[in-house]
Amino acid sequence: MKAVVYTQPGLPIHAPQSLYDAELPTPKPGARDLLVEVRAIAVNPVDTKIRASRGGDQPQVLGWDAVGVVREVGPEVTLFRPGDEVFYAGAIDRPGSYSELHVVDERIVGHKPRSLDNASAAALPLTSITAWELLFDRLGVEENGGEGQRLLVVGAGGGVGSILVQLASKLTRLTVIGTASRPETQAWVKALGAHHVIDHTESLPLQLEALKLGPVDYVISLTHTDTYLPQLVEVLRPQGKLALIDDPAQLDVMPLKRKSLSLHWELMFTRSLYKTEDMIKQHQLLDRVAQLVDSGVLKTTLGEHYGTINAEHLKRAHAMIESGKARGKIVLEGF
């Protein structure tokens, strides 16, 4: 099968071997696995982070967003059958989806939204799972809850932020404040449902004060949390909650103590990494996301379509992700 691979970690994306086209053997599904014919993928920051840090003697396959058609099922599969259209984000400890055929555990797979084409659906799985778990599992916000409370989303214009703003504004009663620094990104965040948009390159406390929006009950920080932490502690009300997804080299949490602030870290791969008892929740929430899309409540966060799935186009996508200027999700489609 066709695949896009790499071997040596840490190469700059313009290097010839940073990503290259290859032929690999067809994988075999395990007991609860699906063998999926991949139709479209999306590129995420985790792809670039793994490429920078993890290699091996054998070709490595990245990619943790996919849409495809089930071609074969393992003997213990109960949720899907051959021919089903699916979308999912995969598992970080297994080969990724930059390949024509891909094996994935059925418990982290959802039925593809019927109303979306493959590329538009590929933009959703990883960020939807991350955003859903951040809001409802980590912070404990309830659907239709949050009346009179405020949520600040730092980096609201990226992939996770783009779906998180929608979930919070459509499924809760929170007042949603997103941050974005460029006019086009600010307009994007506003269009997704944020009640207010402020600039994270300027003082967050002063901007919230000017809008009479502080203090806030919840903060979800999606980027540069260590840089913004003093401001986030300042704008959070006592006993507020801070959640994050990024990887600061260091994070001094002592300033949270005075306000009894709680800290919540989200990694959407945790359930699949540890085969948790509630692993099937990711199947359930992806099916729920598909229903919300098909009913018009949520919309795709596709930002740009970079063409077919090959090394050249994926290098371009990785370069854009590494630039920090991506808006929404970058998708590729077909081999």
TrEMBL record:
InterPro entries in the record, alphabetically? ADH-like_N (IPR013154), ADH_Zn_typ-1 (IPR014182), ER (IPR020843), GroES-like_sf (IPR011032), NAD(P)-bd_dom_sf (IPR036291), Quin_OxRdtase/zeta-crystal_CS (IPR002364), Zinc-ADH_QOR/CCCR (IPR051603)
Keyword list, A-Z: Cytoplasm, Metal-binding, NADP, Oxidoreductase, RNA-binding, Zinc
Subcellular localization is given as: Cytoplasm
Q: Which domain of life is it from?
A: Bacteria
Enoyl reductase (ER) domain residues: 14-332
Q: Which PROSITE patterns match?
A: QOR_ZETA_CRYSTAL (PS01162)
Entry's Pfam families? ADH_N (PF08240), ADH_zinc_N_2 (PF13602)
Q: Single GO molecular-function term?
A: RNA binding
What Gene3D superfamilies does this protein's entry cite?
Medium-chain alcohol dehydrogenases, catalytic domain, NAD(P)-binding Rossmann-like Domain
List GO terms (cellular component aspect): cytoplasm
Using the UniProt record, give the first listed, main subcellular location.
Answer: cytoplasm
Which NCBIfam families does this one have?
adh_fam_1
Q: Which family does it belong to?
A: Belongs to the zinc-containing alcohol dehydrogenase family. Quinone oxidoreductase subfamily.
User: Subunit notes for this chain?
Assistant: Homotetramer.
Give the protein's recorded name.
Zinc-type alcohol dehydrogenase-like protein
